[in-house]
Amino acid sequence: MIEKAGYLPISLEGEVEYKTLTFEGKSERLNVQVPLLSQQQLDTVIEKVRQASSEILKTLTVTELLQIIDTVVEQLLDRTNPYRQKAEKLLPIVTGYDKELIRIGLTNYLKTFRKQNLQRFLVEDFGNPLLLDDFQPRTKRGFSKAVGANVIVQIWAGNVPALPLWSLISSLMVKSGTVGKLPSAEPLFAGWFASMIVEAEPRLANCLAVIWWKGGDEEKERQLFQRADLVLAYGSNQSLESIKSRIPITTRFLPFGHKISFGIVSKVSLDSRKARKTVRDAAYDVIRYDQQGCYSPHVFYVQNGGNVTPREFSRYLAHELESFEKRYPRRVLSIEEGASIAEWRQKEEFSMLTNSEKEVLGEQSNSWTVVFGGNEGELTPSCLNRVIKVVEVNELSDILPNIETYRSYLQTVGIAASPKELFQLAESLGALGVTRITSLGYMTSPEAGWHHDGRFNLLDLVNMVDLEHSAEEYAEGLAPYID
């Protein structure tokens, strides 16, 4: 099978070269052709996007843009839609994830971008969304308006299917044109979405470009970054550091790098009635996209004193992971990923010689591994792909010293605890750098309008223009109706 990826503005001069990326599924082979532009074509694209952003995108109201996005999302939620059918057929081949897991994951993810959720998104960041349409009065007098960049260059990661939607939709909401770089790991969804946006509103044909270039192509990146108003990028800390070195000091850079997340399980969630749900929710957070997201757990801290002990929690967790494997099989791993798991297991098994409390659950042939680490409390990253560690703690506050080392890397914490415990933990975790606290079972499903890594998804994409009261008052003195 052959699928052409990406999206290009209309009327590009010259023949466009396409690079073929090959993906092997369980029984199918897919060749994805991604657009690889010349430097001249790249200049043309940037100029087209800049002009269309200024002349078309910024003339639409926020309400109109939300309706366009909602129309496309509604189509993608319809499983009879050709694009949705293509996604369900091809994304399992490209990503290796189970087709049923992708189907469920896409539906839950897309619902985040329905109109009512986008409205919450806008209110969360701006309070008054009309700031994006016109100057609005401020409580301290004067007026302000939020103005989006004309061109945002976006470099996307492909570790989770359809991940580019967050930033692509955010840029549309603030009326900014986008030149996006397709991730080699999942180069399909962003182009499909851009094409559907243009089908829903043809006037936006030149406001978007979804292309590809080889990662680390310094010449093309400098060319793009010199012309961009803002650069947004996902990736490893090393790749983001490299990108940063090529961005002009006057251009805003929004990097989203490596993060670590974990879970906390209070003893109150481990009585005979609640334990089963608690363990199942924890297991779901582990299996969804095989821990590839920055919000996936690496460790579960489980409190002693419940009807289910932390060691028993580990064994129940192993049972749930085995059950999930039958329904949602883990994707086929690369040689490097398989070697990483083998090395990780070997290290944990070897440490059992000095820690009699430790237990490694699951055989080498299993698609999951659970390590009960006793009271080894340090937050150590796992090697991912359904590999998880369980650590016992006597008091929930005992967790805090063990995570402080990773302050700059902390992101999501999934918690199963009483209301009192929840708010006490939230206060302490926030002080240590955690930026998102959710329930078990929802670690991989951020709510609409979440503050990604503690930042604003929309506010960071705009400049606020203040029209001060003194200017208004001065103008009043020059009005023609003043004698």
State mean pLDDT (0 to 100 scale): 95
Q: Give a count of the beta strands, DSSP E runs of length 2 or more.
A: 18
Number of helices: 15
Q: In CATH, what is the class of the largest domain?
A: Alpha Beta
Helix content: 25-40%
Indicate the low-confidence ranges by residue numbers: none
Here the CATH topology of the largest domain equals Aldehyde Dehydrogenase, Chain A, domain 1
User: Can you tell me the overall shape?
Assistant: globular
**Cα gyration radius (Å):** 25 Å
Strand arrangement, major sheet: 13-14-15-12-11-16-17
Beta-strand content bin:
15-25%
Tell me which CATH architecture of the largest domain applies here: 3-Layer(aba) Sandwich
Give the tags.
483 residues, alpha/beta, Aldehyde Dehydrogenase, Chain A, domain 1, Aldehyde Dehydrogenase, Chain A, domain 2, 15 helices, 18 strands, 38% helix, 20% strand
